[in-house]
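Hi everyone,

Forwarding the result from last night's run.
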Amino acid sequence: MKRCANLSINLVAITAGRHLQLSHPLTGKMSIELVHGKRFCEVLVATFKFFWASIILGNDPGRRSFTLSSRGASQSVPRSILHLHPVRSVSMCTAVRLTDKNNNLYVGRNLDWGVPFGEKPLLVPADWTWQSRHIGAIATQSPIIGMGLLMKDMPLYFDAVNEAGLYCAGLSFAAGFAHYNDADPSKINVTSFEMPLWVCSEFTTVAQVKEAAQNLNITNDAFDPSLPTSDLHWFVADKDQSIVIEQTAEGLKIYDDGFDVLTNQPDFQFHCNNMRNYIHLDGDWTPERTMRNAHLTALGVGPSVMGLPGDPSAISRFVRVALLNASYPDQDDDADNITRLFKTLNAVSMVKGYCRQESGDFEYTIYTGGFDSTTGTYRYTTYDDPAYHTFSFADAASLSAPANLK
């Protein structure tokens, strides 16, 4: 790995004179063009340093060049110039898992966007058969509840959980990170819009999902010509663990999620490495300190978490929610753990006026939803109504087909 102008760089291959769509964790997609007319076998791709921070703050003029040395070129090319054209893309979502002392599961997510999708409580009964685009007929093993849309009799879940307590949520993984493939006859082919329903229909534990996903292929099928594919990665959780499933151009990857949280792009491994920058944060009270002959007392609470990022980017939200999920004191009863889950998600919720999308709409938390395995209840709040709205598996008992609750 080489370094140039404070860029961390990885190697990919392109051909001179061709454009390649790559992605960056802060700015989104970049069109990269090799200016010199030579074949260039290794192109160095920026990931995250000071220059990119200036782009996200709006200080970049919109086009910059860097001279990068090549290695292993098929022709002698001492230097080539890459022009990087950032395309800003912002999308927000956060998911969190926690358990109580009795190993009961509390799990949920924020759905953040600039406009609502028409999402409602979505219930699927047990023993209901649906047609997977590639697998064929699949029968649900138990009722499934969550939030989503019912389109053409097909449940499209933003997040879902089955009666065994297996939860799956799709979160935005945009800016060129998500990569879907054509169907592969040697793989288990599942579309992006089927993922939560497939997980909750076929499995009862994360361990089962993890094993099956070793042969999983997320396909590029759109649900409908009017509803193109969404770039997503998935947070899958039960009372014992959580995992992250991502499919990029490098292939499908399954990560054990020791933080029990997920936000958005860049990839999960980036977030894990980035957390190493914040291991000094602990939330403890630091009342006083002596430095040589100077005695200092704290101005108030908070010095031990100074440096905690507060911006709405996925990178910063991951740090905040991971720290809070780890440091929130254990709670004894169901009500307090429900409060813990929702307060943790509220700590990274979006308020209108905070972050504007390219469309001009302000991003905001459309809903916060959470499942409590103690009572088998799903609760949600909306931007305009902070009161809990509840439904449970019992509400699906009388159904013969999927239904949105009014």
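Residues 1-90 have pLDDT under 50 and may be disordered.

Cheers,
N.
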